[in-house]
Amino acid sequence: MSINLRTASVTVDDDPRRYAQLSTIRLEDPDAVARAANARRRHPGLKPGRQNFIVAADHPARGSLAVGSDPVVMADRRQLLDRLQIALANPAVDGVLASADIMDDLLLLGALEGKLVFGSMNRGGLAGLVNEFDDRFTGHTAAALQALGADGGKMLTRICLGDPDTVSLLEATAKAIDSLAERKLIAMVEPFLSVRENGKVRNDLSTNAVIKSIAIAQGLGSTSAYTWMKLPVVAEMERVMAATTMPTVLLGGDPDGTQDEIFASWQAALALPGVQGLTVGRTLLYPADGDVAGAVATAATLLTHTTEASE
Fold first, then answer.
1. CA atoms within 13 A on the CB side of 99
2. What is the C-alpha separation between 186 and 177, in angstroms, rounded?
3. DSSP 3-state assignment of 53?
4. What are 220-245's pLDDT values in tens digits?
5. Closest Cα partner for 96 from 150, 156, 19, 36?
6. Strand (E) positions, the chain?
7. Within 10 Å of residue 267's Cβ, how many Cβ atoms?
8. Beta strand pairing status for 200-204 and 186-197?
9. I want to staple 252 with a disulfide (CB 3.0 to 4.6 A). Which of 22, 105, 192, 283 is the partner?
């Protein structure tokens, strides 16, 4: 049995049955995911001068469910799908970065028509895990992303100089970059220099640390032809962007500061050479005022959407 969900409403409501069709399809017609992927209209393609806007939704697969002071707000899958559909309904949003479970839901909902699609590849470094730096590739493979007609894969690359698991992660990341490049798929690498403090992993967001993480990450793999950077917005972004020639998207992270302050920092960074756009999740999907559509619309105004001829 196959159920067409392409006309699903993007209006948020509290009906607990609003996504019951997804369970039915997964039970009775699991091949519907592959059919939806094959039938999907692809994004028209990346163009010089047009920055891209990608919504990130791979946090739950790493056990990272908190936004602000709420430790489990992202655990409600129905609300997350509501919010993702609202965001993706804005034509200025180019695509999504998601773990396989969320991507499959969005494919069945018909929410990825004409969108860029990036899969999340390593989700093994669970938040709070005793060996969190052993961030194994437990999500999408390059072969699976190619079969889905995706545009690329993303890998979190936390580099802890005091943890022996880091070298294994770097090796696995290099192999993933090569596997994607063989298929002409983008490798979106998200590097951090990280430390463990009081039992918790903390990413060092100082300017020099971000620059060093770029230097290490962009040298992984036997080719960088298809490698992008996914970087935090930190102090002295001019120095950060001077460290790479890779196309770079900016991440949002867990919201810290007012929405106006966050948007202002993004706007300044988006004006720098090499910045290809935004790949943001929690800041826009769970804004403080609850207005997902408004937060997405405001963020969209920060990006450059005029196509320039290639030189």
1. 19
2. 8
3. strand
4. 999 999 999 999 999 999 999 999 99
5. 150
6. 52-57, 95-98, 116-120, 152-159, 186-197, 200-204, 227-232, 248-251, 275-280
7. 14
8. antiparallel
9. 283
| 3-state SS assignment for residue 116 | strand
Give Cα separations from 289 to 123, 185, 264, 283, 284 (angstroms): 30, 37, 18, 11, 10
Which tokens in the block code for residue 62? 């790493």
pTM for this structure? Answer: 0.92
Identify which of 121, 133, 94, 260 has the alpha carbon closest to the alpha carbon of residue 177: 121
* 12 Rama class: left (phi>0) / alpha (psi -120 to 50) / beta: beta
DSSP secondary structure of 77-95: HHHHHHHHHHHHHSTT--E
Tokens (6 digits) for 144: 């699976």
pLDDT at res. 199: 85
| Residue pointed to by tokens 């590849």 | 121
H helices, E strands: number in the chain: 11, 9
- What's residue 102's pLDDT? 98
Cα(39)–Cα(113) distance, rounded to whole angstroms? 9
Q: Which residue ranges in the chain fall short of pLDDT 50?
A: 1-10, 307-311
The pLDDT score that the predictor gives to residue 292 is 96
